[in-house]
Structure formats: C-alpha cells, structure tokens
Amino acid sequence: MLQSISPLHDDHHERSSRNSTASLTAALNDSKIHLLLAASGSVATIKLPLIIQKLSTHPNLSIRVLLTPSASRFLAGQSAEQPTVSSLHALPNVDGVYVDEDEWREPWKRGNGILHIELRRWADMLVIAPLSANTMAKIVSGMADGILTSVVRAWDARGELDTDVGRDPVGASTAGAETNGHGATKKIKRIIVAPAMNTAMWRHPITTKQIKTLKQDWGVGRGGEGGGWFEVLDPQEKLLACGDRGDGAMMEWTEVVKIIEDRLGLKL
C-alpha cells in the first residue's frame, strides 16, 4: 500500500529541487538576466518583497534570493509588510530562496556541485540590500561563514573564471580588466551593496575604513572605470527604526530598483 505524502513533504521536495545545484546548472543558459538579491540583518529587509515585486515587470529577469539568519528574523509573518521567508518563493520572477542550511544540505561527494560556487557562476550581478554592519565587516575581513559571505568570498574579482559557462555576463565591467589567454577582455561581474545601520554604527571609524575598502580598493569607480567589483549605495538620513534620526538608513528601495534596472540594462 502506498504511503500518503503530506503537502508539507511536497513543498520541501519542491524547494530542495528548485534550490539544487543541478537547477542552477540547468538555468545557466536560459536566455534570462540573472540577479542574486541578498539581504542581511537589518530592519530594511522588510523592503525586499517590494524590490522583488517592482522588478517583476521584467519577464526576462530571473531572481534568486539569499538570506542571512538575521535577515530571516525580519521575515517571519509578523505583519503584512513582513511576509514569511517561504512566501518569497511565490513572488514573481523568484526561482530560488537560499539560507545557510541549504549549503552542504546533503553529504558531498566528488562530482557534485558546490552551492556557493554555482550561485556565483549563475549570477550576472549580486545586490545586497540591505547590507548590515555585521555582514559588511565580515565581507571586508574575508569571512565566509554562511551562504551569502561564501558567495562574496568566492566572487570572481578579476574576471578570470567562468569563461566556459556559455553566457556573457550582463552588466559586467571591462574597465581596467586585462585580456584572458584567448585574447578576450576579462569581464568583472558587479556586487552592489546598500548599507543600512544605526547612525552611530554608520559614523563609526571602523565603518569609515570598511567603506573605503569597498569604494576605493575594490570599487568600480565613477562611471565604472575603477576596475573593481563593488558599488556602494550610500544610505540616507531619516528617522530610523530605533528612534534615532540621522544617516544610516538604506537608500530608498525604489532608487535601489532603478539602479538595478540601469546596471542590468532592464527596460520596460
């Protein structure tokens, strides 16, 4: 007699299938633009569904979402503007939602894909909105303790890898890049970050040093001529969730969407 399968089991199976490394490999050449959209531990994470919905006007855009454990705490169904993490799967254009537990979910064996590497290969661009003070510190320090920081740490900062994936990365920078062994210009895929934190955190000397690293040492530069791979969207001044008024709030989410559309060449 066949054992019945609960809807919960079906949902888990479907999610595991959509989030598998095999699904990423299969989608490499689907003729769509690929956006990795990530959120880290800031209250501005509640803007993530709005960003996704606004981008849904582009049918040729495929979105895969990365969430840190702290970001997930802001998406637990607390209110209408804070849906559950699982509900993100149902949003338009979302083809995967990844959390730390998805990395190494199954025992690895030689020949299997590695999730954070396959995500990097799949992506045309990574956008982290919001970028918390904690995650920024990890990125600048080179830590790779979760799915998001592992993707960032494994990013092709010199445009030397993934030349065999069969797709030309959209929005990649060629300024300052050398040619590869075949004489083709290296293309460096971009990481866009939108910091969001308390005013005291934003004005802290360590934040100043970290932003300098992202903007000057690793930055794409004005007009993309810097040869780097990071673009920083400076925060705005407003009344923060903690009650303080000052700078540190994430750039207005509608402006973040416009920048994504511009960098990826998305048109209505």
UniProtKB/TrEMBL annotation:
<dbReference type="InterPro" id="IPR003382">
    <property type="entry name" value="Flavoprotein"/>
</dbReference>
<dbReference type="InterPro" id="IPR036551">
    <property type="entry name" value="Flavin_trans-like"/>
</dbReference>
<dbReference type="GO" id="GO:0015937">
    <property type="term" value="P:coenzyme A biosynthetic process"/>
</dbReference>
<dbReference type="GO" id="GO:0071513">
    <property type="term" value="C:phosphopantothenoylcysteine decarboxylase complex"/>
</dbReference>
<keyword id="KW-0173">Coenzyme A biosynthesis</keyword>
<feature type="region of interest" description="Disordered">
    <location>
        <begin position="1"/>
        <end position="21"/>
    </location>
</feature>
<dbReference type="GO" id="GO:0010181">
    <property type="term" value="F:FMN binding"/>
</dbReference>
<dbReference type="Pfam" id="PF02441">
    <property type="entry name" value="Flavoprotein"/>
</dbReference>
<dbReference type="GO" id="GO:0004633">
    <property type="term" value="F:phosphopantothenoylcysteine decarboxylase activity"/>
</dbReference>
<protein>
    <recommendedName>
        <fullName>Flavoprotein domain-containing protein</fullName>
    </recommendedName>
</protein>
<feature type="domain" description="Flavoprotein">
    <location>
        <begin position="34"/>
        <end position="263"/>
    </location>
</feature>
<comment type="similarity">
    <text>Belongs to the HFCD (homooligomeric flavin containing Cys decarboxylase) superfamily.</text>
</comment>
<feature type="compositionally biased region" description="Basic and acidic residues">
    <location>
        <begin position="8"/>
        <end position="17"/>
    </location>
</feature>
